[in-house]
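So, could you explain this one?
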Amino acid sequence: MWSNLAVAEPELAVYGAERIASGGVSYLATVRRDGTPRVHPVTAIIGDGRLFVFMEPTSPKGHDLRRNPAYALHCAVSDNSGSSGEFFVRGTAALVEDAATRALAVAAATYAPAERYILFELDVEGAASAVYADGRPQHRRWGTA
């Protein structure tokens, strides 16, 4: 859960939440049936110590996550120099079918998810950031990032 990151590395979690929120779009990596990677733009949601993504029920990313729940999520960057910094999480995803959890994710969303959308919760097993100072990256890591 996102809350595990927040407890273990509060500054990294705050930075990550800011980067995810500020870019609007993050990039979700999944694994295709043939084992090759696939990348999808998503709007990640952080609420109540949890990380979520909604998607169309026919989305390839949903099919990928049902078959193989491994994922990686990277925030958008603001420019080619990475001046706003980078944030990355990885872990496993689980399809959410519980109405209370869905309501929580809807309430935390910055947009109105359609009723037809399916919801995945992304368990956070590792996180990393890179902040650039004088052109040099300063890294922070937690878990299995």
About this structure: The chain has a mean pLDDT of 92.
